[in-house]
Amino acid sequence: MINWSNFISQCFNGLVLGALLALISSGLTIIYGTLGVLNLAHGAMFMLGGYAGWLTYTYTNSFIAAVVAGSLFVMIVGIVMERVIIRYFYTRPYEDQLLVTFGLGIVFVETVRFFFGSLSKAVPAPPPLIGITSLGFMYYPTYRLALLGIVAAALLALYLVLYRTRIGMIVRAGIEDSVMVDSLGIDVYKVFMLVFGIGAMAAGFAGIVNAPVVSIAPDVGESILVQTFVVVVIGGVGSFPGAVLGGLIAGEIISITSMFNPGYSYVMLFVAMTLVLVLRPYGLLGTAGRE
Amino acid sequence: MLRQRPFIVEVLTAAALIAAPFVLPYLGFTPATVNRILVWGLFGIGFDILFGFTGLLSFGQSAFFGTGGMVAAYLLTMVNFPYVTTSLFIGMIAAGVIGYLVGLIALRRTGIYFAMITVAIAEVFFFVEFNPLSAYTGGENGLPGVPAPTLPLGFTTINFDSDASLYAFLAFWYFAGLVIALRIVRSPVGAVLRAIRDNPLRAAAVGHNIHSYKLTAFVIAAAYAGFAGGLLGIMQGFMPPDAFTFDTSGQLVMQTAIGGAGTLFGPLVGAAVWLYLSDFLQTTLHLGAAWKLVLGLVFVLLVCFLRRGIVGGFQDLYRLAIQLAVHGPAVKAEPKAAAPAADMTAEEEQKATHAALAKAPAAEPMPALSRKADASAGPILEATGLTKRYGGLVANSDIAFSVKHGECRGIIGPNGAGKTTFFKMLTCEIEPTSGRIVFDGRDITGKSVTDVCQLGLTKSYQVNQLFTRLTVRENVTISALAELRGKFRLDMFRQLPKIAGLAEQVERTLALVDLTDRADIPVAALAYGEKRRLEIGLALASSPSLLLLDEPLAGMSPRERVEMVALLKSIGQGRTMIIIDHDMGSLFELVERVTVLQEGRVLVEGTPEEIKSNKAVQEAYLGGVLEA
Q1: Do residues B570 and B517 share a domain?
Q2: B325 falls in which pLDDT band (50, 70, 90)?
Q3: What value, to the nearest 5°, has the Cα angle with vertex B61 and ends B186 and B310?
Q4: Which residues of chain A does B108 touch, with a Cβ-Cβ cutoff of 8 Å?
Q5: How far is CA A87 from CA A25, A80, B552, in A?
Q6: Which of B319, B342, B364 is the last residue of a domain?
Q7: Strand pairing of B157-159 and B238-239?
Q8: Residue A28's pLDDT is what?
Q9: Reduced to 3 states, what is the DSSP secondary structure of residue B6?
Q10: CA angle A284, A288, A289 (to 5 degrees)
């Protein structure tokens, strides 16, 4: 017999995880859509955000400073990575792009392991958000509730940047056809750098705001990366709405399956991905020709 | 490669494998490390066929490595199955079957999608091994107590239970795996796999069922992984669960890239570098966990600066050395038909052109394969009501088009008239929104480009679609293979030279497009005009009965045009052709009838004379200009 309050609480967990995955996947998908590079170091970006935030927190004791530092640091890492390495791979075959980003991911993870060890680190939630809140029908950890709001706000901000600003318009045009954008007289390489920075920042931000829920370790990004892939395959590569929809679907599948048997959560995720691949090969909200 | 001396690679490998245990310890390799290198090397051979030869980068090989290993170890430990080698093969088959099923899903997409899907699927295997199936796999403990193999010889029994004796066992299977892989790579299947790597679109268009070939490569890789996984369990006496981790897949990818993909030996060399460095950094330099950071940096640098890995780098050096030895320095492959010198007068240029023309055609064209009695004088191709819409844009609208057997038809029309879209529909590259296409009495609407090519209808592309990393001869071979072998055939152990009629067909095609002297040069080193001729040669090598040519004269110099027209004339004998081109002078000289397209519709059709004097055609081309 299903325990209903447990079920609803798991649905909430799914929503939180889903929103988080949506944010990380949006970062991955806009980078891929615009630059044509699948960043296999994206999971490491998530991890770096967590560590940069944790380090800031240990010195300042301020959660907000940790979030700002974590996001900015990862954005800078993303921009530097694009300037120094990725830009030389735009004209190389996709395999090389995968290999180099995969290698960079390992370098990031192992660098962190070298300096901070393999043991996990915890960042506590800010004091006002510690404890549990009554929702009337159930009690729910306050920080998780807040996390839902924080991530939703971040997604909204990303949406506003992408759909309501001039630079967002250029990015979306770049996703459709970056060569065309280039021929319109827009310095597409500057846009690429910016997109890489924003996309990385989305992962870094997610990494630090999630730290109070799941403590951080050097390889925390690995499973996130795999889940992000599933999200992107379900939602459709290069589609921001697809990433959001796919994220929520994946989050709910993982959480609800875990209620019955955590061992099957990946199996169910995989079943969903296979169904999408069979029924809508380009993803739920994807379009043909973006691979 | 060293094609002139057969088996030299095999013999050298065997010698190296025999010498290795005596030499490597002096270089600091422990016997256990050498054994691990062999297991990873064998694992990598299959992966190299998938990645290096077919161009499919999978990050999920751990699924098959683990599956093969677990099945073999389960049989040997939990079931007490007594035959070690047999259990290895059962594990291999299990991995192959799983590979087939996974391939059906993962190969629905290509490129980065394929990479992402393989990662996701491998992660599923990891979780399934750890949780739902832990009763069979030992969960996080793995399966201990895997017995060592034995070899009963009647009078005595050899136990492969020490590092040294195990080396013999592993080296034997590595060698067997390598010999098989070399056969596969040199077979027609291997040739098609390389074609898929270089240009999947064209590989399909010349008539190969690329999906089946990719699935084949995927299953081969899975089978190698499964066998190597079984060897891992035997080597360690314990089947570790971390065979299933993403790290395993990643390590394989990195080792292959370090050693050099597409070389078969790359993974072995990569594994040697990887395992040696990991030993050295940890035990000699006491770097502890930082060894992986160092290897990660090495890997990134290699990907950035040594694209083809260590073995690939040596191959390039070897080729360079050979070139220097044979030709002396600075002799790069010069195009035979060198561009006319700048100071050549117009008169001389003309003379040269006439000289080129006076040269007798190098070869008779291959006859169009008569897949059906050619005698019928009816239409070979008939399209009715052909329409293509892209959203609101109508590219082609209600086109009726009919071509007789043996005819040579021209299609002209201003830019944007929908000529290329029309061709793409005829070759079934894109499906028409509505309408019907009948080729040789068969309705081909909605068929695949591969099937249509097999029926004898193919196209040369407006923009060259060649197999750029292969030589000219290999390019033509790929196309000829599709005709001789059909769209899919698993002759993995047949040698290319033993295919009846292949050499003849390739040579004739090469002679026809005048590339015989350039046959062994990589496509990348050809001049533009030569690439253009090869583009047509690719279409021709499959002996089509109906050949479509999309702007064969585009971008050519006047002299190249004259040569091309002569070539097209000789090809056209006994074959139906439809040619799109903007060079009306040349086109009208070639074709019997011309169809004029404008804004997606047939404007008019008639003989070149009729078209020249047609008012509507003149308006279509000049009207806009006069108005402006």
Answers
A1: no
A2: confident
A3: 55
A4: 277-278, 281
A5: 21, 10, 36
A6: B319
A7: unpaired
A8: 94
A9: coil
A10: 140
Residue B104: pLDDT band (50, 70, 90) is: very high
3-state secondary structure A29-98: HHHHHHHCCCCCCHHHHHHHHHHHHHHHHHHHCCHHHHHHHHHHHHHHHHHHHHHHCHHHHCCCCHHHHH
B397: in domain: yes
Higher pLDDT, B190 or A278: B190
- DSSP character at residue B49: I
Backbone angles phi, psi at B172, to 5 degrees: -60, -50
B613 interfacial to chain A (CB closer than 8 Å): no
- For residue B337, what pLDDT band results from cuts at 50, 70 and 90? very low
**B622: DSSP letter:** I
Same domain (yes/no): B95, B187 = yes
**B81 lies in some domain:** yes
**Which residues, in sequence order, are CB contacts of B468 under 8 Å at separation 6+?**
B198, B199, B522, B523, B524
Taking alpha carbons only, the member of A73, A213, A59, A53 closest to residue A130 is: A213
Specify the number of domains making up chain B: 3
* Neighbouring C-alpha atoms within 13 Å toward the C-beta of B297: 7
- What's B463's DSSP letter? S
Chain A residues with beta carbon closer than 8 angstroms to that of B295: 106
Q: What are A156-181's pLDDT values in tens digits?
A: 999 898 888 888 888 888 877 778 88
Token code pair at residue A176:
């459709």
- Domain of B411, CATH number, reads 3.40.50.300
* DSSP 3-state of B352: helix
d(CA B611, CA B106): 52
Question: Is the Cβ pair A233, B113 closer than 8 Å?
Answer: yes
Is there a single domain that holds both residue B435 and residue B572?
Answer: yes
Is B436 in a helix, a strand, or coil?
strand
- pLDDT digit string (tens) for B242-257? 899 999 999 999 999 9
CA distances from B501 to B370, B480, B537 (A): 16, 9, 17
Q: Are B229 and B95 in contact (CB under 8 A)?
A: yes
- B254, B202: one domain: yes
Which pTM value belongs to this model?
0.89
CB contact under 8 A, B257 and A270: no
Host domain of residue B526: 457-543
The string of pLDDT tens digits covering residues A50-97 is: 999 999 999 999 999 999 999 999 999 999 999 999 989 988 888 899
Check residue B440 and report its DSSP letter.
Answer: T
Residue A13, classed as helix, strand or coil, is helix
Answer yes or no: do B288 and B398 share one domain. Answer: no
pLDDT tens across B510-544, in order?
998 889 999 999 998 888 888 999 999 999 998 89
Distance, in angstroms, between B450 CA and closest chain A CA? 20
Number of alpha carbons in the 13 Å side-chain half-sphere of residue B616: 13
B383 within some domain: yes
Mutation choice for B interface testing from A222, A224, A266 by most B CBs within 10 A: A266
Last residue of a domain, one of B543, B578, B598: B543
Q: Quick check: B514 contacting A, CB < 8 Å?
A: no
- B440's tokens: 């040789």
Do residues B12 and B134 share a domain? yes
Between CA B442 and CA B605 the distance in angstroms is: 24
Contact B167, B174 (CB under 8 A): no
Q: Which residues pair with B399 in a beta bridge?
A: B386
End-to-end C-alpha distance for chain B, whole angstroms: 60
C-alpha B160/C-alpha B168 separation (Å) is 8
Helices (H), B237-344: 246-259, 266-279, 291-305, 309-327
In a domain, B304, yes or no: yes
Of A274, A278, A282, A287, which to mutate for an interface test with B (greatest number of B Cβ within 10 Å)?
A274
Whole-angstrom distance, CA of residue A77 vs CA of residue A73: 6
